[in-house]
Structure formats: structure tokens, C-alpha cells
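Sorry, can you check?
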Amino acid sequence: MMNRKDCLKFLSTTLPLPLLDLWSDPLISDGVKAQTSPLRTLFVYSPNGVFMNDWFPKSFTKLKKEDHFVRELELSKSLQPLSELKNEFSMLTGLTLHTARANGDGGGDHARSSAAFLTGKQAKKTAGSGIRAGLSADQLIVNKSILETRWASLELGLDKGSLSGSCDSGYSCAYSNNLAWKSKNQPLPKEHRPALIFEKLFGAKGQARQRASLETMWREQKSILDLSQQQFKNMANYIGSNDQHILNEYRESIRTVEKRIAYDLKTPPNQFKTDLIIPSKTPKDIRKHAELVSELVALAFQSRSTHVITYMLGQEGSYRKYPHLGIKDGHHVISHHGHQLVNTKKIQKIDHFYSQVFAQLLSKLKSKKEGNRDLLYHSQIVYGSGMSDGHKHDHAYLPILLAGHAGGKLKPKQWIHHPKETPLCNLYLQLFKNLDLSVNQFGDSKGFLKGLG
């Protein structure tokens, strides 16, 4: 029988593991400094702005002209799904994305919104070659941090993205479909297929063809956990009850996701091929798709596969329909509501739905324990859009939430208002500071935000 050090060594090579109390054992670490909880950073983007009257608190209209204030968080109609998580996030108002405005470039606010959201840079108006935005905040973190993770970052979404073609008034689809930019000329395409996200987290990196693909295993009703089943059993003799609970919950989460992905990939036996297949299916129901990707985000952080993720709930300018909400019109179309009640009600329903998706994501992070806390405590999460009022294509008073505690560096449950035209990139300076990165200017930033900690 393997001893615990050998079991742990084998497990960590066959499956990425969560942070355990065992890591601080000198017999395991061999004198290496005990591992502590890393700070995770997540950016979540929702498309087409919001219906501001229902997204912001009712008192916002009277208070928004003030220079700065910090009040207890008030939940608006559209944010009600987050009511049980009120202690886990703050609302930031007054932030602006000036570089998403035309600034002489004419139409294309949707493309500029997503292109500038994490870069703070004005996108070059081109539908072909020569695309240009800027280094995004997530990639600055990657460049300046020592990240001993399987992946430096993950770029995820609920829509299939494209890097070519024209999507908005002469702007390349690369702007509308992506948040992350590795350099000013290189967007990082997102992955929307749950099976491929799972493969990134738990597959054999760089040697997928040297063993049966995960897809093959799922079709044969096997699990990635089968590869290390005996070692898990052996470890039970050596680890404490807290570590055992964490491992059991972790394994159950992996298996639950596996089952759901395998179900989505079912095909008749006569269509099965033994070669490595790139799974292309996604759940048709956006609710199921979002829940699955949110679970994968939580697993990515728990398994320490990455500490940096961008997650687009929809491409900017999205025409997605929402049959489960009784909405047959495209999102972009009804975002230009003209203040007609029939349209504003639909937009409010969509905003409410995206709040549900975000609440579910936060709940999954909060449910996964790490040390004496949970993953949400060890995270800093920005949720929002590069556009406020979708009807006006406005980029002031952006709908921004800041969730998590950043390991104790953030103080949630606040409504923090800043003067109009305060750059959104000022927020990113604070996130960099929380990561102990020395960055005093980014995008169009002009200083650090007040009142976050």
C-alpha cells in the first residue's frame, strides 16, 4: 500500500487537487513553504446594458449627483436574486467607460463596450486586419504574477465567438465576442463548450491522444475519477476529517459535471468514432448551460487550475432570445426599448435572469470550502457591462458589482458611489493592489477608488 506522500504525489499528477490541510504537513511538503489560499480574480460580463430604472436603487436618481458616498447596500428590483448573498458583494456607481464612446469614430458602441471593458482602450475601427484594443486587466495580472497553475488564465462564455467578420458598424467581431486581450493586437477567444472546458481542467494536457479521450470515457460510462480511485481510498487512511470532507465534495462535484456533460454528448453507437472528437454540443437551455459553466468556474478555482478567469454571459450586441422568460424578441432589439412598457418589462426580466446566473455562480464559490473560509472569500469578482442604458448606448453610470472579500481586503455589503466620469479602470488598480502588484496606471485610469476596503 502506498504511503500518504506517494498517494498524494500520484493523485496530483492524475488529477488537480484542491488546497488541503495536508499540504502544510512537513512530511508532504519536504520543507517547502506551506501553501496558502491564493487570491482568485474573475471578470463576468453581461451584454447590452440594463434597464437602469430597475437595476439601480430607487434613491439613485436623487443621489447620483453627489461626489462620493458609502452607504449600506440597497437591492433593486433587478438584483433581488442576490438577496441571500447581500453580505458578499457591493454595488459601485458613477463609473464610466469613456473609451467605449464614439470619440469621433461614429457608430459601434456595442463593439467598443466589450473591447474597452477590460482594456480601457479605444478599439480601432476596422472589420478586417489591423484590429487593436489593448492589454486587458486579466492578462496584466497574468503577466505580473507568479502563477503556478495548469493554465495562466481561462476565457469562458455562453456564446460561440468569432475573431473575423464585421459585427457592429464596421467593427470586427473580435471586439464584440471577446473580453481578454493578450496584447493590443491579440484577443483571446473564449470557450463555450462545457466538455472542452472540462478537458482543459482535468484532461491530459498536451497528450490527449496518448490515452482514451474524456469523451470516449464518458460514452463508456467511465469517469476521470476511475484513474485514481485506489489512491483516493488509500488516502482516506491518512487524512483528517476536514480534508476527507473537502475531497469527497470535490469528487462529487467533478462527477456531477461529468454526468451532465456525458449526457449532452450522447450519440447513437453507429455514429461513434474512436478518434479524438472535439465535442461541439452545448445545452440548448441557457439556464442549464450557465449553471454548468458556473460549476466549471468554481471547479477551476477549487482545483487551482487557474487563478484568473473571464466569463462572458453573452457577446456584446447579442440577439439571444429567452423562451423560458416568454421573450421571443432578440435581446439587442428590445434593449432599444424607447421607454415603452412592453419592452422595459422584457429587459427587466433579462436583467433579473442574469442576476440569477450571477447569484448561482457566487453560491457555488461560497459552497466550496478552503481552509477556514470559502472560495468566495478568497476571490475578487467584477460583474457588469460596458454599457449602462442600452437604449441610449450610454457608457456612464455603468452597472457594476464587486463581489468576494479578496482574502479580507474588500468590504462587501456596500453601495459605493463615485463622481460621474470616474474611470472604470480605477477599479482595476484596486484589484491589482489586492494582488500586491505595483500598478499605478492602467487603461484610462486616473487613480484608486475610495471606500472598497
